[in-house]
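pasting for ref
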Amino acid sequence: MNAQLIEQLQVKYQDFEPYYTEAEKLYQVHGKSGDDPTEPYDPKMLCK
């Protein structure tokens, strides 16, 4: 994909986050929050 197309799509992690969360539950896979320095910021994790 070229950069222009990515900019036009305007897709953000937050758009997919509910699906990632559901997949982690379904497949019983997950990592410990905070271990991956590249993981996106998740304000919901502050409440846990």
